[in-house]
Amino acid sequence: MDRRQFLYLSGGLITIAACEKSTKKVTPKLNFPIHIDSNRTTGHLVKSAIQLPVTAKVTTETLVVGGGISGLAAACSLQSNDFIVCELNSQLGGTSSAISIDNVLYSQGAHYEHTYLHNYGQEGLQLLERLDIIQFNTHTNLWDFVDQQHLVAPHQEESCYVHGEMKSSVLLNSELRKNFFDLIHSFNGKLLLPSTLIPSDLYYLDHTTFYEYLNKYLPVDSTFINAIDYQMMDDYGGTTKQISALAGIHYYMCRPYYTNKNISLFSPTEGNYYFIDKMKNHIPSGNIQCNHLVFGLKKENKKWHVDIVDIKNMLRKKVIANTLIYSGQKHALQYTNPTSFEQFNDISYTPWVIINVVLNDTIELPNSKWQNDFISKDTTFLGFTDSKIQSKEHPRVLTAYYCFPDMHHYSIQNLETSYDGIVQQTLQKISTYYKKDITIAVKEVYIKLLGHAMPIPKPGYLTKSRNLLMDGMAFAGADTGRLPLLFDALDSGIQASRMVSNL
C-alpha cells in the first residue's frame, strides 16, 4: 500500500475513532438538539418480517423497488399507470433526499446539477422537459433550467480552504493545470451523458487508473494530485488511484464548466430532491408506498412474487407483479435475490455522512460561498454549502459532507449513538474556515447516515458486461455500471421502463 493511499484510508479511521473517543471523554456536552437519520436498523428488519403472516395480497403490472432518481424516472416512463413504487425510507429521494427545517426543504444528499448539453441523451432530456425542468435555448444550443431563481451566481459558487490558506477554487490556474486540460482536450465532445453513450474505442481508458494515466503523460506533483483527488472524492467517492481514467476524464469532459461560460450551476436549497419532487408530482400518489421494505423476490408461474413489510404498521404483504424494476442498491440483492446479485458483486459503495447545521440570525459570515471546499489532513471532510447563497429569505443552514472509504460503510453505524464527536469536529472545521466560532449560533443539527451512498467507478466498472433484464426483472440505478451522476441514474430508469414495457 502506497503512502497516499495509507493516508487516505487512515484519515477515515482517524475521523471515526476521534468521533467515538471525543464523545466519551473529550467533547463537551453540546447544548442544542441533534437529530439522527439512519435506515440501517430498518433494513435489518428482515428477520422479524419473515415471522409475520401475510395479511394482504396485491397484484400489479409492474413493481418498482426504490424511490430514488432512477426508480421515479422509471415510474414516470412506464406506459401504464398499473404500477407500485416501494421505498424503504419514510420519504422518497435515496441519495437525493431532503429534510424539512422550519417548513423549508434542505438537501441531505446530492445537491447540484449543471446546464445540459444539446447532445446529451435525448430520452433523459425529453423527460426533464416534460416535467418542466428544462427548456432548450436556441441561442446557446444548450438546455437551460426553467427555474432560473435556483441558479448560483458565478462569483458566489466556490471558495476553498487548502491547508490553512483560502483559495478561489480547488484546481488553481497553473502551467500544470493548462497541460492537464490540453491533454484531455482530445476527448471533448466524446464523453457525454448518459455514460452508455461513451464510444467503445475509448473503453481502454477503463482498464487503468486515473492516476496511472495522468502520471504517464504529465509531471504531476502532490499538490495537483491532491486537488484532483478532492474532486474525484466529491463526485465519485474515490481517489485517482481508485477510479478509472475513463471516469476521471469523463468528469471534466462531460460537463465543460471549465471551458464554456454558458454552463450554469443549478442548486435549490433542497438540492437534487427538486428533481424527486417534480417526478413525484407526475405520479399518482396512490402508486407510491414509503416505509415499505422488500425482503424477498421470487419468480413463480411467470410472475414475480415479492415479500414486503409495511414498516410503519409491521404488516407483511405479498405483491404479485408481471414485471419488476429493481432500482434499489444492488448489494441488497445478495439477500433478496442471490442469483441476480452475481453480476453486481464487483461494486464498492462509498459511505456518506451529511450534517445540516441550522444557525440563528445572530452571526454574520462574510464572503461565504455556495460551495465552501475544505482540503486538510482529514480527507473524509469535503466541506459544506451555505443555504444563504441559495435563498436569503430562509433560515441559514450549513450542510457539511463527509465521504468515507468504502470499507467503512458498517463503521459509520457507530455514529448512530456516538455522534457528538463528529458534530463537534464539523463545527470546529467550519469555524476554522470562517475564522469565527459558529458554535454559539447553532440552533440544532441534523445528521443523515448513508452507508452505501454511491458506487465507485473503479477500473473495469463502466465497461463490464451486465445483463440488465433477467426473467422479467430490469435493473436501474447508477450502480448498474454507470457513473454516480443524476443524468445517468435518470436514464437508467428510463431504459429499465422501456425493457419491461417491451416484454
Can you describe this structure?
The protein has 503 residues and is an alpha+beta fold. The chain folds into three domains: 3-31 and 348-455, no CATH class; 42-99 and 274-347 and 460-501, FAD/NAD(P)-binding domain (3-Layer(bba) Sandwich), CATH 3.50.50; 113-151 and 171-266, Guanine Nucleotide Dissociation Inhibitor, domain 1. Helices cover 29% and strands 26% of the residues. The protein contains 15 helices and 24 strands. The protein has helices at 3-26, 40-43, 46-51, 69-77, 122-130, 175-184, 210-217, 222-236, 245-253, 273-280, 333-336, 338-341, 387-390, 420-434, 486-501, and strands spanning 34-37, 54-65, 83-86, 98-101, 104-107, 113-114, 116-117, 134-137, 142-145, 151-152, 158-162, 165-167, 265-266, 288-289, 292-300, 303-310, 315-326, 349-359, 371-375, 381-386, 397-403, 442-455, 469-470, 473-475. The strands form five sheets. It has an eight-stranded mixed β-sheet, sandwiched between helices. β11 (158-162) and β12 (165-167) form a beta hairpin. The protein is globular. The chain starts with a helix and ends with a helix. The model is unreliable at 1-27 (pLDDT under 50).
The description of the largest β-sheet is: 8 strands, mixed
Identify the CATH class of the largest domain.
Alpha Beta
Q: CATH homologous superfamily name of the largest domain?
A: FAD/NAD(P)-binding domain
Ends apart, CA distance between termini? 48 Å
Q: Which word captures the global form?
A: globular
Total number of distinct structural domains: 3
List keywords for this structure.
503 residues; alpha+beta; FAD/NAD(P)-binding domain; Guanine Nucleotide Dissociation Inhibitor, domain 1; 3 domains; eight-stranded mixed β-sheet; globular; disordered N terminus
